[in-house]
UniProtKB/TrEMBL annotation:
Coiled coil: none annotated. Residues 1-20, 509-548 are annotated as: Disordered. PANTHER family: DIAMINOPIMELATE DECARBOXYLASE, GROUP IV DECARBOXYLASE. Keywords: Decarboxylase, Lyase, Pyridoxal phosphate. It comes from Streptomyces chengmaiensis. The lineage of its organism: Bacteria, Bacillati, Actinomycetota, Actinomycetes, Kitasatosporales. Residues 8-19 have a biased composition (Pro residues). Gene3D superfamilies: Alanine racemase, Lyase, Ornithine Decarboxylase, Chain A, domain 1. This is Y4yA family PLP-dependent enzyme.
Length: 548
């Protein structure tokens, strides 16, 4: 046999990467500061595993204050209720329960479990509103606890009255949720979309008849709506319709005092409008065949081509939004009523009505991120880079909610660094399930360089619906653990952490003052290698302990 080396084909050249179509996440100061603490985050994942969700409870209190500022600007009273369904975190809910009278945030619960969680987190019944489909058990506990019930129809009204009489419960405060609003001048033309929630306004008389039959058991305190839309025009029509419905309640001898505008205030996920416009234009071009696909399998996110014609519509969340959250509420209140012509906030003020709002995504804005370890990086036959993560699509459900943004690459702190000359790269993110469909996102994401095994990818701003809403134990993969973090010295010091379920505002205050031995004194390891004697709190970089 010859000793000459066997001939080998040279590796195929790296396919040229087109100009990167970045979708950079919008980062406010707290998240931006946290993402700079790579060693801290790497240590948490090493101790607690991947995937890992990080919560910032102080941020949700700050967000509630911003919403309250809008109320003050329009001289309105009322309450902001956090839509609990957006996130299961105990830390976020407990921190909101601790907001004082200046903010006085409430909780919107949509299940018996959420109600029990909220009451256990410290919310009094009068600061809770029950929405969504309701079982008899859910209604019973809501009534027993003094919770306001957002009633969707006659059957819920009848069931609430039956429970009050059967079990000697206190009189239940009701909000009557309405839908399918019309303007008086439009006849039968419906100006707001249909909803599975609420009673159509044309059936309001029937609903009020049911409430009148049970005056001894029920107290209607107002009306509201739920609209699955970001359109200000539709919501302005609905709010004006609620004002008319309040007058119908007064005519029947009730004394309503609150109008509930629900949620849907939105969040801006991206930092740059230009990036969003450029990407959606490029996606359309790719679907039409004018450029290579930007997604796995040429997925069009609702767009398709039939006989050379573009069909469908883009089924994506508008990831860049110049007006969102508190700004959206301010815009709605400043908007002239479609028929009355005066600002809706002014009409609420002159009627001396309280305003209720139920933000979910908007109140959880910037309140968390999700971390995943890179398990494998390889090139497919077509030359595409595939990155497999210790995470699946259920752990960070960006795709389910149509949210597109790039993760932040957090390289290992081992001194090896990345190769010289590396530049922007597009990669497909694969999950850890044995399913072809387990893609973290169908979009090819852009990273500043190719990750390697052991690096972290951080998905920013996932606390609103994208963190645990779709999490499952599929294939016996573990659910992500949750950690609450905060900065010492009012946001200027080092970062501290605690298991989400162990976080209480009073505990955090004790650890900040150094009186809780659970955090130790050794810059993050305390007396128990990362957790002190509390096995659930720490500072700096956790390096061991019971979760290592």
């Amino acid at each position: 046999m010859s000793n000459a080396p066997m001939h080998q084909e040279p590796p195929s050249p790296e396919p040229p990467f087109p100009e990167p179509l970045y979708l950079e996440p919008r980062l406010e100061s707290a998240l931006e500061s946290l993402l700079k603490e790579t060693a801290f985050l790497q240590g948490l994942v090493a101790a607690l595993g991947s995937p890992l969700h990080i919560l910032l409870p102080e941020q949700i209190a700050s967000n509630a204050e911003r919403f309250r500022d809008v109320f003050r600007r329009h001289q309105l009273t009322g309450r902001i209720f956090f839509a609990h369904k957006a996130n299961r975190s105990s830390a976020l809910v407990r921190r909101l329960a601790a907001t004082g009278e200046r903010v006085g945030a409430g909780l919107d619960v949509a299940s018996l479990g959420e109600l029990r969680h909220g009451l256990g987190a410290g919310f009094a019944g009068e600061r809770v509103v029950a929405t969504g489909p309701k079982s008899p058990e859910f209604l019973w506990l809501a009534a027993r606890s003094g919770v306001t019930v957002n009633a969707d129809g006659v059957q819920e009204v009848e069931e609430a009255a039956r429970l009050v009489r059967a079990y000697g419960l206190p009189r239940v405060r009701l909000l009557l949720r309405l839908s399918e609003f019309q303007t008086p001048a439009s006849g039968t033309r419906t100006l707001s979309r249909r909803s599975r929630f609420g009673t159509p306004v044309k059936a309001l008389d029937t609903l009020l008849d049911a409430v009148e039959r049970h005056r001894d058991a029920l107290e209607p305190i107002g009306v509201g709506y739920h609209l699955d839309t970001t359109g200000l025009d539709e919501k302005a029509t609905a709010l004006e319709g609620c004002l008319r419905a309040m007058e119908e309640l007064r005519i029947r001898g009730f004394t309503p005092r609150a109008v509930d505008v629900g949620g849907g205030f939105g969040t801006g996920y991206l930092a740059h409008a230009g990036q969003w416009d450029r990407y959606t234009s490029a996606l359309t071009d790719a679907v039409m065949g004018g450029r290579p696909p930007l997604t796995w399998g040429g997925h069009g996110y609702g767009l398709r081509v039939e006989n050379g014609t573009l069909k469908g519509s883009l089924a994506l969340y508008p990831a860049y939004r110049s007006v969102a959250g508190p700004g959206y509420l301010d815009a709605l209140l400043s908007r002239p009523a479609p028929c009355l012509g005066r600002p809706l906030g002014t009409l609420l003020l002159e009627s001396m009505y309280e305003l209720f709002a139920e933000p979910g995504r908007a109140l959880a804005d910037q309140c968390g991120l999700s971390l995943a370890t890179v398990l494998e990086v390889r090139r497919a036959e077509a030359g595409e880079h595939l990155v497999r993560l210790a995470m699946n699509a259920g752990d960070v459900s960006l795709e389910d909610h149509g949210v597109l943004m790039d993760p932040v690459l957090l390289p290992q702190q081992d001194g090896r660094g990345h190769g010289r000359g590396e530049g922007p790269v597009g990669v497909h993110l694969m999950g850890n399930l044995c399913l072809e469909s387990d893609l973290i996102t169908r979009r090819r994401v852009c990273l500043p360089r190719l990750p390697r095994q052991g690096d972290l990818l951080a998905f920013a701003n996932t606390a609103g619906y994208c963190m645990d809403f779709g999490a499952t134990h599929a294939q016996q993969q573990p659910l992500a653990r949750r950690v609450a973090v905060w900065q010492e010295e009012r946001g200027t010091g080092g970062w501290r952490w605690m298991l989400d379920e162990e976080y209480w505002p009073v505990t955090r205050t004790r650890t900040d003052t150094g009186t809780d031995a659970g955090t130790g004194t050794d810059a993050g390891t305390g007396t128990d290698a990362g957790t002190g004697t509390d096995a659930g709190t720490g500072t700096g970089t956790p390096t061991g302990g019971p979760y290592a």
